[in-house]
Amino acid sequence: MITMKQEVPRKTGRPLSFNRGKALEQAMLTFWRHGYETSSISELTAAMGISAPSLYAAYGDKKQLFLEAMQLYAGSPYDMELALSEAPTAREAAERMLVAAVEAFTGELTPRGCLLASATASGSEASAEVQHAVAQVRQDIKLRLKKRIDRDVSQGLLPADTNSDSLAGLVIAVIQGLSVLARDGGDRPYLLTIARAATNAWPKPRSGDAN
Amino acid sequence: MITMKQEVPRKTGRPLSFNRGKALEQAMLTFWRHGYETSSISELTAAMGISAPSLYAAYGDKKQLFLEAMQLYAGSPYDMELALSEAPTAREAAERMLVAAVEAFTGELTPRGCLLASATASGSEASAEVQHAVAQVRQDIKLRLKKRIDRDVSQGLLPADTNSDSLAGLVIAVIQGLSVLARDGGDRPYLLTIARAATNAWPKPRSGDAN
DNA sequence: CCGATTCCATATCGATCACTATGAAAGTTG
DNA sequence: CAACTTTCATAGTGATCGATATGGAATCGG
Known about the structure:
Chains A, B: Keywords: DNA-binding, Transcription, Transcription regulation. Chains A, B: GO terms for molecular function: DNA binding. Chains A, B: Residues 17-77 form the HTH tetR-type domain. Chains A, B: Residues 40-59 bind DNA. Chains A, B: Pfam families: TetR_C_13, TetR_N. 2 copies of one chain form a homodimer. Chain A is mostly helical and 211 residues long. Chain A has a domain at 73-199: Tetracycline Repressor, domain 2, CATH 1.10.357.10. The first copy, chain A, has 9 helices and no strands. Chain A has helices at 20-34, 41-48, 52-59, 62-84, 90-105, 115-118, 128-154, 164-183, 188-199. In chain A, helix 5 (90-105) runs antiparallel to helix 7 (128-154). At the A-B interface, helix 7, helix 8 and helix 9 of A face helix 7, helix 8 and helix 9 of B. The first copy, chain A, binds a DNA duplex (30 and 30 nucleotides) through helix 3.
């Protein structure tokens, strides 16, 4: 588990001249927009409003800064996904995940697409560890959704032969793909129709349903 | 339209000491594996087996080299997609696209995932033109699939109220998402089950079908 | 006010980036 | 063979990469 560096105010010494959380948010937006390797330290320091030595003193290095930024990004998705685990059905949970993803990918105050999908989609061998860390977050989300589906299967809300791993993988794949379409300029209403179409792939609960 | 530089053998002068097509293929594999901005010239020249001046003399610069490599990559997908336009139905065409994508993303002799999905998923402002060129290829594929769907709708093979744009967008989104899952280590059989699950989102042709 | 501690601003560090100047090498043409 | 054309290998260009050394500035406990 990645642990966020605690922001403990020192008893002595010169105080921080910037808000650590606000600066981290700007770093997150920069990584979101331009990716991990393709965001330079100078671009990050410009966005965060601090100098390079301040960045390294406060966050360690570029890798640790990104991991913290990713945690900040995935934070609300985690809460979202946790809330969705309390959704009435797994299908409803998946639908809410898809809608929330579309809204997050097409926000007017944030970059297009998904940080988890784009920030390390490509990269040199030098950033293999970071790529793996991002992949781990994706896999965690997929696993939670799979378990949510398994719950419905065991409760008889979904057919016993439901492949929960495939269904969870499909939802994650659609979300990651919607990130690409959002980057390509697809607007929110359009992406929502795709998300809605994706839920048609869900198996019917019990008896045949028209839709 | 991007035109491939013609390989015209000069009548005089020292002949090329390398196979231009083979070297381009190695460049394509490098961009596929490590992305556009995150593949360095030194990495490219090492993979292609040529020196930097030879690369620049033969292909222009890094950007043109990538555009040629992308054309080489998209070449067979274009043929594939052209062949799929002759598939019996739009749904069958989409299924073939999905299966072909899974096979391409999980080949043992090639990098994981999709070059079109990952090579420019992130990047600085400096590579905006390249990112746009890649997005254009994606949009072209989506448009061709949409038109294939429209054909089935006009022929009564699909419901008249079918949203062909959403359906095409869903297929493209799933393909791009499968690229991410392939990069995360998902094996071919697993990804095929996801592709199969995605086709369940397709509207029923005429009367109710059990599957 | 003083020493200790911490952070800030300036000015870099060596390494690598995309790219190229230069002259020798390898062909064709006569 | 000599003149011409094109490519080759070597070595480097200025710029930027991630990361830091250094010394002064700001706040603390005493």
